[in-house]
């Protein structure tokens, strides 16, 4: 499916102004340009165009709210100046696996004042001497280059950030455990008392049944007396 048709499919009957995220990965462009995207996507914040055969960004529409742009595994070597014009609020840009060879191409990103992270992994420019120092010097606004800052500290993943906010796994309040144990003990005590009460009730019921049958008890006692008399007679004989 080409890029233009993919855009229509991803809309799913919605208007472009309702779309905040759009993924068009592996949907090839017919002429190496962006197709199907217009200025109507004014609320778009995340756009992914991985491996779509882009040669140029000249047809990139104006996307004022775009913060994250994925352009890896394409054929881009120039025209990066279009990004500062069309997407002035970018904070993250992935250009890995493109044909960027010169630092002059990277210099075109200087106008992206909000840019914090750039990825140029697997681009020829990374083989230049002092590549990292040069890029950090050209783009003083960025914090991370190819996933690491100037001190080689790795950029945090979004999942890690969420875990930090929620607290590490297993971090819980001991008081909650104590409350749960108290509840369990209370429930266990109630069960024990109920069981004992049932046993007492059952014993009382048996006593009541025996009291209700005095004839049976008298007959038993009489048989016992008769048996004793027979035993005495046998001894005498």
Automatic annotation (TrEMBL):
Highest taxon in the source lineage: Eukaryota
Major localization class: cytoplasm
Localisation: Cytoplasm; Nucleus
GO molecular function: histone binding; phosphatase inhibitor activity
Residue span of region Disordered: 147-237
InterPro entries: AN32 (IPR045081), Leu-rich_rpt (IPR001611)
GO cellular component entries: cytoplasm; nucleus
Composition skew (Acidic residues), residue ranges: 148-185, 197-213, 226-237
Spans traversing the lipid bilayer: none
Gene Ontology biological process terms from the UniProt entry: chromatin organization; regulation of apoptotic process
Alphabetical UniProt keywords: Chaperone, Chromatin regulator, Cytoplasm, Leucine-rich repeat, Nucleus, Repeat
Function: Multifunctional protein that is involved in the regulation of many processes.
Family (UniProt): Belongs to the ANP32 family.
Name recorded for this polypeptide: Acidic leucine-rich nuclear phosphoprotein 32 family member
Annotated organism of origin: Solea senegalensis
